Amino acid sequence: MYICRAQPHKPVERKVNISVVIPLFNEEESLPELHAWIARVMNAHSFTYEVILIDDGSKDTSWEIIESLCAQDASVYGIKFQRNYGKSAALQVGFEKASGEVVITMDADLQDSPDEIPELYRMIMQEDFDVVSGWKKKRYDPITKTIPTKLYNWAARRLTGIHLHDFNCGLKAYKLAVVKSIELYGDMHRYIPPLAKYAGFHNIGEKVVQHQARKYGVSKFGLNRFLNGPLDLLTVVFMGKFGKKPMHFFGAIGTLMFIIGFGFAVFLGIDKLFIDQTARLIADRTEFYIALAAMIIGSQFFLAGFLAELSGRNSSTRNVYLIEKRSYDNEVGN
Q1: pLDDT band at residue 7, thresholds of 50, 70 and 90?
Q2: Rounded CA separation 274/283 (Å)
Q3: How much is the pLDDT for 334?
């Protein structure tokens, strides 16, 4: 990973209003225009800001342009990956670097408008939202992308309980505490609002934003997103609800299935011994194999939950509990 910054020595300490985190891959044409647009908006509203550009292993001259921008503007910070790791990894590194009161993410292809930044900042600072997600109500995408997106957003709303119209919009705003409290990997960038919710940030809002037609290049996302997206959604929901207590999920299903199977077996035994002694042998009845399969599967689910609990307890990863406030009023004085 390569890093460039405008000032190689210790930077001057200052309060930053906004950190703009921009992951990119092969966006050489749009970067100068995007930087100029962001700078124009920030200066017009007297924001102190930083722009964090994460080059996700571009093969064009994107990194050379980032280095040039760093040399021209002290507010620009550049990071380059050795290879393409994906948007989630780029955002994670950008979040680790961000220091602004409000962190705004946007794509580098000029389809997200920097003119939305002041209102997003206001909604976070004045309306006290934890997360504000953009909603591209009017899209300039082909129907092959818009229809799957609608289905995906419907499923995400039902599973997460967060009523957003556009989970995958790249233009979002966060309180700094939010981005410091979540971890992105795989393709989890689509599900930052659910991750924030499961981390305890429930005040999630939405804003209609302008979506612009692509001006340069082509989309960097292939058909694999239609498979990876639903799988990642299930992962986020499961980890959010049961990541710290897997036995509550696997154990409940296992116990239920074992009880059903055991109940079938008891019924077959009572029926053979006391009700119809001339009936077929228990082992010749279909119900016996249903009961046996249910008890075996139930035991396996229970064992899976038990092993997951053991793995979680012995993991080297420390549990993180976010503390919102502290009070020292009851401490003993001098």
Answers
A1: very low
A2: 17
A3: 47
Rounded Cα distance, 6 and 75, in Å: 7
Tokens 């035994």 locate to: 269
Lowest mean pLDDT among 22-26, 102-106, 152-156: 152-156
CA angle 129, 171, 104 (to 5 degrees): 60
Q: Where are the beta strands (DSSP E) in the chain?
A: 2-5, 18-24, 49-55, 76-80, 102-105, 131-135, 172-175, 204-208
Judged by DSSP in three states, 84 sits in coil
Distance from CA of residue 36 to its chain's centroid?
29
Give the residue among 296, 284, 294 at the shortest CA–CA distance from 261. 294
Res. 189 pLDDT band, cuts 50 70 90:
confident
**Alpha carbons 26 and 60: distance in angstroms, whole number:** 6
Structure tokens at 141: 């995408």
Q: Is the dihedral of CA 162, 168, 170, 176 positive or negative?
A: positive
User: Given its phi and psi angles, is residue 330 left (phi above 0), alpha (psi -120 to 50 degrees) or beta?
Assistant: alpha
- Phi/psi at 19 (5° precision): -110, 125
Sign of the four-CA dihedral 74, 77, 80, 86: negative
Residue 10 per-residue DSSP state = P
Q: Are 209 and 116 in contact (CB under 8 A)?
A: yes
Closest CA to 67 of 77, 59, 57: 77
Does the pLDDT value for residue 330 go beyond 60?
no
Residue 56 scores a pLDDT above 50? yes
- Sequence length of the chain is 334
pLDDT in tens, 123-170: 999 999 999 999 988 776 666 677 777 888 888 888 888 989 988 888
In this predicted model, what pLDDT tens digit does every residue of 172-186 receive, in sequence order? 999 999 999 988 887
In CATH, what is the architecture of 2-242? Alpha-Beta Complex (3.90)
Beta-bridge partner residues of 207: 134
